[in-house]
């Protein structure tokens, strides 16, 4: 059973056809790096641009809009929305709506992107082009965000921040600035984010027997500023902190903590004290050996079997 079993299929709008074509063009345009002389400045621009937008997706789209795991002012909320929309992942309300559906039935029939049910490539990329995923969005689970007209505007005109960001990169470094600062970094942010939908439900350790396939993976956590502690996150999704222990590096959480000291954000939610005060959490080697949840075993067997 797939997400199309729960939501009717539909036709792409002309705007979606344009955006799908641009998505493919962005990937092809990455090849332009081979025609531009390398410079450390361009690499720094790409890394800085990746960092800014990855942060906007994880700390903004995910931990704020989808989970409301901390509070902030209406102005800063708008900043997060606009910044997130520069990452080519649609608007904040759409993103939150899809992600809330993911948590409501993770790796179940209602999950829009489960690698255990539909395979790695569907969870990583295929679902983006699946017409059963609603757009503009399913409003039923995002009424808290729909109250803000400025968020609805960003959601409807998500291409404005995206194009604005591209123009800014062009202004900074002409065509080489556009390619490295916008194209390369946007595609990298996109795939790093999608790895959480795909790989973080397949590869890594499981500390908690959540009723899904979520995993903790330090490599993915480094790439995505803390999102790779995905089993932790599924265990306690309301927490703004996803690396529960000091060795679980979580850059987004550290920056949110810093912003809370500056008064920009507040009520930053933590995991329950009973979780983080454990003196002897099981070592990673023991966790790797831990048996997966029976439902995970069933679904993994199905994937291995070619479902
Ligand atoms: Zn997940
Ligand atoms: Zn989440």
What does this structure look like?
The chain has 307 residues and is mainly alpha-helical. The chain has one domain. Helix content is 56%, strand content 1%. The chain is built from 15 helices and 2 strands. The chain has a two-stranded antiparallel sheet with strand order 1-2. The N terminus and C terminus are likely disordered. The structure holds zinc ion (2 copies). One zinc ion binds next to α2 and α4.
What would a concise description of this structure say?
This protein is mainly α and 307 residues long. Helix content is 56%, strand content 1%.
Q: Which spans have pLDDT < 50 for at least 5 consecutive residues?
A: 1-6, 282-307
- Measured between the Cα atoms of the first and last residue, the distance is 10 Å
Order of strands side by side in the largest beta sheet? 1-2
Which ions and ligands are bound to the chains?
zinc ion
Q: Helical segment tally?
A: 15
Order of helices and strands: HHEHHHHHHHHHHEHHH
Task: Tell me the number of structural domains.
Answer: 1
Describe the main β-sheet briefly: 2 strands, antiparallel
Based on Cα principal axes, name the global outline: globular
Strand content: under 5%
Summarize this structure as a short list of keywords or feature phrases.
two-stranded antiparallel ribbon, disordered C terminus, mainly alpha, 307 residues, 56% helix, binds zinc ion
